């Protein structure tokens, strides 16, 4: 089984095992590129604690969906669709010349980023590890120790440096922090076979004209312990993809089926093929033990704003009347005067808008994922909606023994 050997990944100390809590590595980046971890109040090794957030404090990202639904496919619906995604493909020979790209891909971190973006942003991308490496964290520094900190435990918190090039064996160790502070871009912008020294102005893509667009900025790995089927369903509704340490697979949905006079839950997963280096669709029976340990990518702060809120704001800048077409203005979450918007329907990728109107958030259909230009005078409604929809998405990954 592959494990992420990122910062502190080899340790489980400091993590809370309560079922509903997510554990995030604490720290903020200083101007020198180091992650600083404040050790005030920590007297010894055993006192060190991860930053924790309650799962239920995060907003469900898919309208009208709950953990009680018989099925949920936030990314794709079929085997062919999953295996055709850009994230699911193997690296090209030229991409494999950078060992850090290979490591992040093989460690499942690449897949978790790509599938999380597909679920939450509805975009099929190949994450640029070269971009993350260009913005890699320099190291982790533990500061502000109390005078009575146990000196025998100081070696656990020694400064840890990370490599900044493809050839350094520990370059991948800082990538999780790089994602949190810099986000990730698509390889169509910054290719994974691009030389780091050729990235002169990182505000533009390799073509020199297109501005870079980052995803998952603010996200990092959130670990959970003592997980179960119910909690993982909640995680999927909030983060879109969940890595199971036990299965060594990325869970991308579930379905509930009847048989033998009882209902059984099945996971829909993306399984990494260690030979072909691709992700394959796999459906398997769900049980609590299979999801006892795992991770997501998310923001440690459940109330932190995210660039998705900008998209929501833009989509909702229109003011619908009773006869306003759905194509001109997607349904509001609340107080929409149109009858079609009052239906409690749950669309699939193939559902027509006549059957179920576009939702403002979490709609899987391409026709409902459109750009828009805010209308004049829409400021007040945007402010109101930003309050209604104040929410967050999350997660990234790291595996542990």
- Average residue pLDDT: 81
**Name of the level-1 CATH class of the largest domain:** Alpha Beta
H/I helix tally? 8
CATH topology term of the largest domain: Cathepsin B, Chain A
Q: What is the makeup of the main sheet? A: 9 strands, antiparallel
The fraction of residues assigned to DSSP E strands is: 15-25%
Through-space gap between termini: 10 Å
Give the second-level CATH assignment, the architecture of the largest domain: Alpha-Beta Complex
Percent range of helical residues: 10-25%
What is the tally of beta strands? 13
Give Rg in angstroms.
Answer: 22 Å
Number of domains: 2
What does the overall shape look like?
A: globular
Helix-strand pattern: EEEEEHHHHEEHEHEEEEEHH
Note poorly predicted spans: 1-12, 307-316, 370-401
Structural class: alpha+beta
């Amino acid at each position: 089984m592959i494990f992420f050997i990122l910062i502190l990944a080899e340790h489980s100390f400091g993590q809370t095992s309560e079922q509903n809590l997510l554990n995030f590595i604490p720290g903020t980046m200083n101007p020198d590129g180091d992650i600083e971890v404040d050790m005030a109040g920590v007297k010894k090794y055993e006192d060190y604690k991860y930053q924790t957030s309650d799962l239920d404090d995060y907003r469900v990202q898919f309208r009208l969906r709950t953990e009680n639904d018989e099925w949920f496919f936030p990314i794709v619906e079929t085997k062919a669709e999953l295996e055709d995604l850009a994230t699911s493909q193997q690296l090209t020979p030229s991409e494999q010349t950078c060992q850090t790209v290979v490591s992040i891909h093989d460690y499942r971190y690449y897949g978790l980023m790509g599938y999380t973006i597909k679920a939450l942003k509805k975009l099929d991308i190949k994450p640029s590890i070269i971009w993350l490496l260009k913005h890699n964290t320099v190291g982790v520094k533990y500061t502000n120790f109390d005078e009575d900190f146990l000196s025998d435990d100081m070696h656990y918190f020694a400064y840890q440096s990370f490599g900044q090039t493809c050839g350094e064996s520990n370059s991948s160790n800082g990538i999780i922090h790089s994602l949190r502070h810099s986000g990730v871009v698509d390889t169509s912008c910054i290719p994974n076979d691009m030389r780091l020294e050729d990235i002169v102005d990182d505000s533009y893509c390799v073509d020199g004209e297109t501005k870079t667009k980052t995803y998952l900025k603010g996200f990092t790995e959130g670990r959970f312990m003592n997980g179960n089927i119910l909690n993982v369903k909640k995680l999927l509704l909030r983060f879109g993809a969940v890595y199971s340490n036990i299965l060594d697979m990325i869970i991308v949905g579930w379905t509930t089926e009847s048989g033998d006079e009882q209902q059984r839950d099945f996971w829909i997963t993306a399984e990494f093929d260690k030979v072909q280096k691709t992700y394959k669709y796999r459906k398997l029976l769900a049980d609590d033990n299979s999801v006892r340990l795992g991770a997501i990518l998310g923001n440690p702060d459940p109330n932190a704003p995210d660039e998705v809120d900008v998209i929501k704001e833009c989509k909702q800048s229109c003011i619908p009347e009773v006869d306003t077409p759905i194509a001109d203005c997607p349904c509001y979450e609340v107080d929409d005067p149109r009858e079609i918007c009052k239906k409690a329907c749950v669309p699939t990728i193939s559902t027509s808008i006549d059957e179920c109107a576009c939702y403002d958030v979490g709609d899987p259909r391409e026709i409902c994922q459109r750009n828009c230009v805010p209308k004049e005078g829409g400021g007040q409604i945007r402010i109101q909606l930003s309050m209604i929809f104040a929410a967050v998405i999350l997660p990234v990954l790291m595996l542990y023994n």
